[in-house]
Each structure stands twice: as C-alpha cells, then as structure tokens.
Specification:
Splits dipeptides with a prolyl residue in the C-terminal position. Keywords: Dipeptidase, Hydrolase, Manganese, Metal-binding, Metalloprotease, Protease. The chain has 2 domains: about 150 residues, 3-Layer(aba) Sandwich (Creatine Amidinohydrolase, Chain A, domain 1), CATH 3.40.350; about 270 residues, Creatine Amidinohydrolase. Helix content is about 35%, strand content about 15%. It contains 13 helices and 16 strands. Strands 4-3-2-1-5-6 form a 6-stranded mixed β-sheet. The chain is globular.
Length: about 425
C-alpha cells in the first residue's frame, strides 16, 4: 500500500475513534477525557529511568510510542488537542514530528512542562493514565467502567490498524530471515539478536517486547530472557520470538529452525507448522477462540503419536490424561494491537484445562489474534509425567534424544475478516 493511502486510512481511523470515544463518554456521563501518555519511572536508587513505550489509549490515537509527558484531550464535538512535551533542554533532544495529514485532525500544542495542561471549560472530565503521574490532576481518575469501555474500542481494528500490523509483520520477517541465516552460520544468541536488529532497523529497546532467542535447550524456556555471547559447540535448534513496532502497532512472530543433522527434530518442526497453518485457517467470524485452543491439543496429540514420542494411547486419551499439556503448557494465543497482549481478551475467565489462555472470546471481523502452538521438552513438566502412570507410554529414548533441542513454537498474526481470515504474517513471507 502506498504511503499516502496509509495516511488517508489514518484519518479514517481517527474519525472512527472520535465516534467511538464520544459514545463511550456519553454512556459513562463524561464530557471530556484527558489521556496521559505516561513517563518512565526512575530505577530504584538510581538516576536513570527505565525505557518508555507509552500508554495504550494514547498509542491508539497517536502511535507515538516514545513520547513521554504528553497529554491528549478528547471532547465530544471538538477537535482533539495533543500537548507535546518539548522542554528547552540541553541534555536531551526534542524529536520533531514529520508533517502528516493527521495533524489537521488533531490540534498540536507545545508544552515545556510535564504537568497536565490547564483546561478551559471541559465539563465533566475523566483523566486516565499511570496513577503516579495523574495524582495531582483534580479530576476523576481511571474510572473502572470507563476504562473497560475504552478497552472495548480497541477490540475491532480499523483498516489503518490492520495495515500497520501488516507492515510490522513485513519488517519483522526481514529480521527473522537474518536471524535464521546467522544461526546457519553458527552465531551465538547475542549475535543472532544483533543480526535481527540490524535487519529490522529497530533497537531492541524500541521493539514491542524483549526478543526471545534460544539455542538448543534454551528454546524450552518459554520466555527465555538471556543471550549467550558464545556459540554452542553443537547448534541443534533456534527458537526466535521477535517483533517490530510500526507506528505504534506490534508484530509478534515466532519461528523455529532445526540444526544440521537433527532429522527427528526437523520432522517435528514440519509437523507443528502444518498444524499451525490448519489452526490459522480456523480463524473466522463466529469461531470460539477456545475451540481453536482445544483443537491445537488434538493436533499436538496426533503429532506426539505420529512421531513415536507417545505410544499405546489414542489421541483422545493423550489429551484427556494431560500429556499434551506437559508438552504444550501455554495458550494458543492472544489479541494483538498497540500492545502485544492487547486488552479486552478475557471477558470470561479461561477454562480449567487452559489456565494460561489469554483470549476467551468468539471471533468477530476486525479482531487480530496470534496463533502459536508449541511443543517443548521442559524437564519440570515432563519429569512428573514420566514418574506417573502414563510414563510407560512415553518413549524415553526418543524423548532424551530431543531434550537438547529445547522446543518448538510457530506463531503468526491473523486478522478476522468478514468471510474468514487474513494471515498478516504469511501475506508477506518470502
């Protein structure tokens, strides 16, 4: 999509947000809403701050992920007003905004103070944001019903939002290819991370989340957070879970690559990808997301059986006896937007058999979800299984040969359309 078409979609997006927010304000008895972008707190006992990425509702309107101490005023029947914090400061630079059409829709003002602006006759005002930063603002703070209603405005993405998510996917895939090449060249986790950042042109601090880059057994830690600086002697596997932020919107992609000579593991990777693609095709209006999660466990059971990891049980028994949950302990995915785990996903608690599932809704057009089945060899989950009654059905020799590979996860970002789905990750995958 050409850049001018994207910017035109942004104007449509802002008009839609104005309409949604005016309805929410009226329903909750407010005339105006003041949104604080937020600011990074200081580290305890230090004069350095944590890195900052911005408050969700502020990003929903502006996409300005790194702008601290800004304020956005939404009023029914009025043009939104955005105060940008631009102090006269020789320590730090004030980042200039490129001139774009949205600046005709939102009135821009410069503010040299981080404090909330003085409002002229705003009526009944709600203020939302980090409680520590809005504490001194004499208005109603973070009303629960209002916040819940605002979360709902982010459930159905506009055409602009879906295009931003697609762009974030395209950029991240360039990084994933670079990471795969670095792995093939025998690089360390740290060097693979650098290759990913170089290819995407985005600092890790500005990415939507800390990239998970695990070689060998590290791939079995779901949110592995360290990078070894030395390559492993025998590179058996790479799991990389990494995204890019584009105009405030996040991609969240995971790929797993088998090392040389790992034929059994490579077959599992291939089998899980085939399952993952079938699960992505289930995404459609009217589908209960919990059903996709349960279908994933049926697919994992079939894969465990076909690979010889589990023997002597039907696929149904493998699921019912909890074996699949030891190999696949997390949920099938979540909402995606200006937050990686976007809001409003759980109007009802997850079922007992899926305690970590982050999305329990029936899918509707405009929703964007991740689909990320996994199959892992996690000692703390497998040892109790092996010691129990079902342990005799586990092929220990095959399992032990795979433990050093850690695990597999494959993840795409999928938009629900009027008639089915659009896989934002596979759309642009080369």
């Amino acid at each position: 999509m050409p850049e001018d078409a994207l910017l035109s979609l942004q104007l449509d997006h802002l008009k839609e947000l104005q309409s949604r927010y005016e309805s929410v304000l009226a329903d909750n008895g407010f005339d105006s809403l003041l949104i604080a972008s937020g600011a990074a707190p200081y580290r305890h006992g230090d004069d350095q701050r944590w890195h900052f990425q911005g408050y969700g509702p502020f990003l929903h309107w502006t996409g300005l992920a790194g702008r601290e101490n800004c304020w956005l005023l939404i009023r029914s029947g009025h043009k939104p007003v955005l105060w940008l914090y631009e102090p006269v400061d020789f320590w730090h630079a004030n980042q200039a905004l490129p001139e774009e059409p949205w600046q005709a829709f939102i009135e821009l003002r410069s503010n040299q103070s981080p404090d909330a602006p003085v409002l002229d006759d705003p009526g009944h005002v709600a203020v939302i944001g980090d409680p520590a930063l809005i504490d001194g603002v004499a208005r109603e703070h973070n009303p629960e019903d209002l916040l819940a209603a605002l979360d709902e405005t982010r459930v159905h993405k506009t055409a602009y939002e879906i295009e931003c998510l697609a762009r974030a996917n395209a950029l991240a895939l360039v990084g994933h290819r670079a990471a795969r090449d670095a792995f093939a060249n025998g690089e360390s986790e740290f060097s693979i991370s650098l290759a990913y950042q170089q290819a995407t042109g985005q600092r890790e601090a500005d990415a939507p989340y800390h990239s998970i880059i695990g070689l060998n057994e590290h791939a079995g830690t779901l949110h592995y957070q360290y990078y070894d600086t030395r390559p492993p002697g025998h590179p058996r596997s790479l799991l990389i879970d990494a995204g890019v932020r584009f105009r405030g919107y996040c991609s969240d992609i995971t790929r797993t690559t088998a090392g040389p000579g790992e034929s059994h593991f490579a077959a599992l990777v291939h089998g899980l990808e085939r399952l993952q693609l079938r699960l992505c095709e289930m995404v459609a209006p009217g589908v209960d997301y919990v059903d996709i999660h349960r279908k994933s466990h049926q697919g994992i059971a079939a894969l465990l059986s076909a690979s010889g990891l589990v023997t002597g049980l039907t696929d149904e028994d493998i699921v019912e006896q909890g074996i699949t949950r030891a190999f696949f302990p997390h949920g099938i995915g979540h909402f995606l937007g200006v937050q990686v785990h976007d809001v409003a996903g759980k109007p009802t608690p997850p079922p007992e058999d899926a305690p970590f599932l982050r999305l329990t809704r029936t899918l509707e057009p405009g929703m964007v979800v991740t689909i990320e089945p996994g199959l892992y060899f996690i000692p703390s989950l497998l040892e109790p299984l092996l010691a129990g009654e079902v342990g005799r059905h586990i092929n220990r020799e095959r399992l032990n040969s795979l433990r050093g590979c850690g695990g597999i996860r494959i993840e795409d970002n999928v938009a629900v359309t009027e008639t089915g789905n659009r896989n934002l990750t596979r759309d642009r995958q080369g």
